[in-house]
Every structure is written in C-alpha cells, then in structure tokens.
Amino acid sequence: MEEQENALTEAQQEEALLEQTRIRMDKLKGYKTAGQDPYARVRYAFDNDSKSITEQFEALEARPVRIAGRILSRRVMGKASFAHLLDAKGRIQIYVKIDNIGEAAYEAFLNLDIGDIVGVEGTVMRTRRGEISVSARAVELLAKSLYPLPEKWHGLKDNDLRYRQRYVDLIANPEVKESFILRSRIIKAVRDYLDGRGFIEVETPILNTVAGGASARPFVTHHNTLDLDMYMRIAPELYLKRLIVGGFDRVYEIGRMFRNEGMDIKHNPEFTMMELYQAYADYHDMMDITEQIFLAALEAAGVGRTVTYQGTEIDFTPPWPRLTMLEAVKKYTGADFDGLSREDAAKRAKALGVELQKGKDTWGDILYTVFDTLVEDKLIRPTFILDYPVEVSPLAKRSNEDPRMTYRFEFFVYAREMGNAYSELNDPIDQKQRFESQARLRAGGDAEAQMTDDDFVTALSYGMPPTGGLGIGIDRLVMLLLDAASIRDVLLFPTMKPKK
Predict the structure, then answer these.
(1) Which whole number is the average pLDDT over 317-339?
(2) 3-state SS string for the chain
(3) pLDDT tens digit sequence for 452-473
(4) Would you say the C-alpha torsion 60, 63, 68, 71 has a positive or negative sign?
(5) Are 10-149 and 174-321+381-490 in the same CATH fold?
C-alpha cells in the first residue's frame, strides 16, 4: 500500500512538472507572438556582480549598477516585489517597485518565472531589514527557463539526478560549485609547484596506436581514413619518456586518461592524472616531490596538514612512513616472504587465505597479491610502499640490490592507492624482454597486460638518462581534500549508465 502511495505521489509530481512546463511554453509563445523573443539578446553588458556589490557596498551605495543572473525566488507584495538573483559569484536581492519601473514593466516582471535569466539596471541600496539589494529601474528577460527548478525546500538531493543533470545541481546546491572552484585551485597549485621547479607542461597524444604506460584495459576506436583501430590513452608515460630521451629534462602533463574498467566510488572510466618525469633523478626524489605537491594542494584547499576524511583524521606532515613491500607484508600479516621459493610462497599465501590467480603465480606475483589482499586496507596514514616485484612493474628499473624487485613505489592514503612512481627503466634490452613477457600474458588472456611498443624501445636505444617518474590521480587527491565520498562528487560530468 505504501509503495502504491509513493508511486501515486511521484506520478502527481510528474504531472505537476508537466503542467508547469506547459504554462511556461505558453508564455514563450506569447512573447514570440508579441515580437519579444526572450532568446534574441546576443549579449548583456553588466558592470557589477553579487560579490562586488556586497564587498564594496559603501562605495556603491546609491550608485547605478547593471547586474545579470537567474531568478531563484520572488516575493510579491502588491505594488512592490523582492527577488533573489543567482550569478557567477553568489546571490543578491533585487527590489522591484511599480513606481520605479512603470506599470507595464512591473506586470512583465510579475510574468517572469523562477529560473528565468534577467538583466537588471538599478541603484545599490540596503533594505529596512539591512539586506544589501539593487533597487531596479529596468528588468529585462534575457533567457526563458522552460523547466522549473527543484523546489527550494527540497533542493536536488537525488544523487543520480544530480550527476546526470549537473547544471541543475549547480543551481540548486551552491556548495557544489564551490567544490569545483576549489578543485581548479588545487590543480593550479600543482601546476604552480611544478612550474616553479623548472618543469615544462606538455601535451601528448590521446589517440594511440599502442595502449601503453599502464596495466589496464583500453577503449578501442577506429580511424576511418587510416582504416586502423586506435586506443584512447590509458597513460601518457611512454610519450613523456620519449621527451626525456629527446632532451627535455623535466616534463609533466595533467590530462584525461581512459580505462575500460569497472565503476565504483573510486573509479570512473575517464579520470584526470598528473604525470611528471625528471632526468637524473630517482624514486627517492619522487617521494620528496610527492610530499611537496600534497603540501601545496593542502594550502590551496585552505586546510592545515591534518584533514578529516569521512570521519578519519589524516596527518600529511612529512616525512611519510616508508616501507618496502616485503616489510609491509611482514608487518601486517606476520608472514615473511623474503627468501622463499615460489612453491613455499604459494603455500604461505594459501595459509593466509589468499587466493592466487591462474597464470600469475611467480614469487613476485604471489607477494603482490598478498600485499594487495591483506595489507592495502591497513594503510590509512600517507605511506610509501617501496620496491615492487619485477612481474608487476614492467616499466620500472630493476633493483641492483635485489633483482627480483624494482625501484618503484606506490603511496596510499585512507587505504587507497593515490599514486605511482619509478626509477625509470632505461635499459632497452631489459625493456624489450619485459614487453615480451607482457605479450605472453596478453596471449594467455590477460586483457590488462601491457602492449609491446617497439618505437619506445627504439627511443630507449638512443639513450635515456637515469630518470624518476611520478603519477598522481588528481580526482582522488581532490576527493581527500574535499571530504568527498565518491569520485562522482569531484567530476563535473561523471560517466553514467544511460536511463532506459
């Protein structure tokens, strides 16, 4: 019975929405019949906004101004009315009085709807209640809103609808706009930090003939002129390292990546990544840069070095703990995998309750699987995990101290991988052999194994200096600093399943 009542209520709401839309459409026809097309205006020159008027009230009081924005609310009081406008900087009240604008103009104002976009000429004033306002001398309709906005007291709370109709979400929930302004500031802070250290921002191809630089399933498209399948990039790494070969000592890119993988609160098929490469540096240098990037982002977000994310306090004060993968596994599981044979490592993993994937059962694969299964969720405070097995690090330099491992780290915050870095593999022969190993995995059905990039091997054969590289997921960084539970909350237009 309750479900029927809810369904009926939804049906009634839908009918009310349709009726309001029909009324607005009729108004639009009336405007056009009268030769007053509400979409005819090509520009409107305003000279102030809600923020400037509020902050400079004393200088602007009683002076003429021109503002523009969307009507959010209206209160009619006979021959005078109040309305609130939303512009790019916030909200401001306008006072519209029949004696000031004339009877015809006042009737036209009363015919406007919530959501309509208007231009207002008037003078700055303060009402008896003390609210800074603009007393209108003229109100002009600049664009007609055909759909009603969510009711003020309900807002737009349905998350699915918020993500699908972000344009309405931004109107109904002003704090959302502030979040994306803050996101922009955080990204700018990252750029400023890197620019200040002599890094050059570059752009690399988004369409690739080889999907390289990461272990991920790519999106496939087709180039008609070349009659060639191409891939949306999964990482810019191999192109950026080609630039190191070519003589750029410090390069970075911030841009969209595309991975044809699952969707959840941490993953979206397209996302923003920052990758940088520095010649004559190693992964220890990359750890220092990582900490400094986070400090710059924290400052841009206007927070201290300790933030609260989803109720958990996280301290970002450097230096962050640094553990090798072997040390981390031993610390959190009590099991020591160092010195074990592949067979003994498999037995120890089984004793820990870890299920191994078929075809991924080398000693290095086993160690990584144990770490991924049992350790990652323990890493709440920012932590660097160093020295990954060669099998899961096809682009990282092999360790001189332990050839089973590489000079690679990932760093984790709140049990999430936030970034990845290497002392880059610059031995072309070793790189070719790693690609061949990955090719065997792909042939065996591993769709995420890396493709062979022969041209990249050629580039390395010309000589690449010792190089450190770092990649950081920008969306996850912003999630942390904005206390956002889902990646969709920090993407203006997240990928959504089409509505049926």
Answers:
(1) 98
(2) CHHHHHHHHHHHHHHHHHHHHHHHHHHHHHHHHCCCCCCCCCCCCCCCCHHHHHHCHHHHECCEEEEEEEEEEEEEECCEEEEEEEECCEEEEEEEEHHHHCHHHHHHHHCCCCCCEEEEEEEEEECCCCCEEEEEEEEEEEECCCCCCCCCCCCCCCHHHHHHCHHHHHHHCHHHHHHHHHHHHHHHHHHHHHHHCCCEECCCCCEECCCCCCCCCCCEEEECCCCEEEEECCCCHHHHHHHHHCCCCEEEEEEEEECCCCCECCECCEEEEEEEEEECCCHHHHHHHHHHHHHHHHHHCCCCCEEEECCEEEECCCCCCEEEHHHHHHHHHCCCCCCCCHHHHHHHHHHCCCCCCCCCCCHHHHHHHHHHHHCHHHCCCCEEEECCEHHHCCCECECCCCCCEECEEEEEECCEEEEEEEEECCCHHHHHHHHHHHHHHHHCCCCCCCCCCHHHHHHHHCCCCCEEEEEEEHHHHHHHHHCCCCHHHHCCCCCCCCCC
(3) 999 999 999 999 999 999 999 9
(4) positive
(5) no
pLDDT of residue 340: 96
> Is a pLDDT exceeding 70 seen at residue 262?
yes
**350: which 2 tokens?**
């089984």
Q: Are strands 306-309 and 250-258 parallel, antiparallel or unpaired?
A: unpaired
Domain 174-321+381-490 has CATH 3.30.930.10: yes
pLDDT value at residue 313: 97
Match 């986070």 to its residue by tokens. 294
For 368-392, the pLDDT digits (tens) are 999 999 999 999 999 999 999 999 9
Could you tell me the sign of the dihedral formed by the alpha carbons of 60, 66, 69, 74, in that order?
positive
> In sequence order, which residues have a C-beta less than 8 Å from that of residue 85 and are 6 or more positions away?
50, 67, 68, 69, 70, 71, 72, 91, 92, 93, 94, 118, 120
Confidence of residue 17 (pLDDT cuts 50, 70, 90): confident
The top-level CATH class assigned to 10-149 is mainly beta
Contact between residue 235 and residue 257 where contact means Cβ atoms under 8 Å apart: yes
Domain spans of the chain, in order of start: 10-149, 174-321+381-490
Q: Does the pTM of the predicted model rise above 0.85?
A: yes
